[in-house]
Sequence to fold (276 residues):
Amino acid sequence: MLYEKKTEKEKSVFVQPLVLVTLFLSVGIAFAVLASRFPDKFWEFRLFDIFTLIAQTATAGAFYIGFRQYGENKLKDRQTALSVECRALVTSMSELLEKMPDSPASPHSYTRDFTKLCNQAGDFREIFSAMREDIIKGIARMHWQDMYFNEFRPYVQGQAFFTFLSNAGIDKDVVRARLARLSNQINPNISDEERSSTLADLVISDPEIADKLHTTKWYWLDSVYEEFFNNKNLNDFLYGTKNRADMYIEAPLLYSLYKLRKKVVLGTVITPSSLR
Fold:
């Protein structure tokens, strides 16, 4: 299955500890019997004991197999319970993403919605990491990818930074003036996606606009990056897609705000390539 990682094959029953011990013991007894001469009455008195030994060994083997089966069933029950919770979290994230466009693009709405979304994403990551690799975990991975590619990415890529800045208290005329001036500084040969990202970055990093954005209080930006754009955290989720997250192209507004926050809070200057 595309979404399922390949794991090592289970060991053959012939290399299990009890089976090996029983096998060696049986072979040892056989060699001892063949190499030794016993009195004629030996078999008369010991045949029953030999059969008893064989029966006891078989009973021990049956107990061992039953014990292993019990352990496997417990692991399957645990795996199923974890997968149910993963599915519920993905469904909840999908429902939230469907409602988010109905809310105004403002710092207040983003703080509320992205905080909830990232909390659910963090819960999913913890539960998902506790699952063992099998077809059930592969299905959980498939559901997460469906939410990520079909709902999350289209939403964050389509966020209008002009509306957000207006709702953040930035004068619309100031934003329009910056748009008109900075648009001419963009390389005309780049793609539309790169143009949108570059323009959002230039406008939001403009001192007159950046100074009025309270990014020091927007902790949710760190969570959004860690849960949805940090490729170290996404490697397992994106297995089978040969895809890597690119915050600069896929979420121009969020990237620009995150970049500004890092500069203001930590004095760190990040670039598109540093986040890939």
